[in-house]
Specification:
mainly alpha; 10 helices; 88% helix; globular
């Protein structure tokens, strides 16, 4: 049953992805590809290993903030488009900044809570990672505050925890398949280019650009799928209450 539902949500997401592809790519390019490539460029200008280690920590925080903004923007695009309204890049980015500060607070709270659970008890950490997976979606879609976003996500997943895990497993398999199909032949060409031009740095740069480009393509689809899954779970909950 889960596989059939996955197929249903998958094809719905595919159709939305195709319909909104130009807009998805523009915001994904602005909020993911450009920041990552620019920060990697500065990384290679750093003089020593210690500085690079510190910079890498900073890099993870900045890319995380941009990815969070991309998440908000993609969800906002889907919400607006479902109302049959048009939205441009500037408007999409503007919508994405709504509740962004609350999103940062929510991400920090969830991050520290899960870190503590994983350190003390691995199993509860895994369990609550799934229970809170829709917290950001609840924050935007349900227009609630930070604490209610956590409870909304928990209540939506409650009783369907394994169902959500199965969807995440199927989605992960699909994304892994894309990476393998694209990266294996692309990796061979990158290695050959590095050998041909005798440049290890060229190989690294091409590899980073390739992986970043693929992530730029995959991220909007993943976010759209999870948003559709959240809607599906809420509909199941409503039917049970009725």
């Amino acid at each position: 049953m889960t596989l059939e539902k996955f197929k249903s949500i998958f094809w719905k997401t595919i159709n939305e992805y195709k319909d909104h592809f130009p807009l998805f790519m523009k915001v994904s390019f602005a909020l993911y590809f450009v920041p990552v490539v620019l920060m990697m460029f500065f990384y290679y200008q750093l003089p020593d290993f210690f500085t690079k280690v510190i910079y890498n920590f900073f890099f993870q925080i900045v890319t995380g903030l941009f990815t969070l903004l991309l998440t908000f923007t993609i969800i906002k695009i889907l919400l607006v488009k479902r109302k049959k309204k048009e939205i441009g890049v500037y408007e999409a980015l503007k919508h994405g900044t709504n509740h962004y500060f609350e999103g940062i607070i929510l991400s920090v709270i969830v991050g520290f809570a899960l870190f503590g659970l994983y350190i003390l008890f691995i199993v509860p950490g895994i369990i609550f990672s799934v229970f809170w997976i829709f917290a950001l979606y609840a924050l935007i879609s349900d227009k609630v505050d930070v604490t209610k976003a956590l409870s909304h996500s928990y209540d939506t997943v409650k009783g369907r925890w394994l169902y959500v895990v199965e969807h995440m497993f199927f989605l992960s398999l699909f994304i892994f398949g894309i990476y393998m199909v694209v990266l294996i032949p692309l990796g061979i060409m990158i290695v050959l280019a590095g050998v041909l031009f005798r440049s290890f740095i060229l190989t690294q740069v091409l590899a980073i650009l390739s992986v970043t480009l693929i992530k730029m393509l995959v991220l909007p689809f993943s976010l759209a799928y999870m948003e559709n899954l959240y809607i599906d779970l809420k509909n199941i909950k409503k039917k049970k209450l009725n």
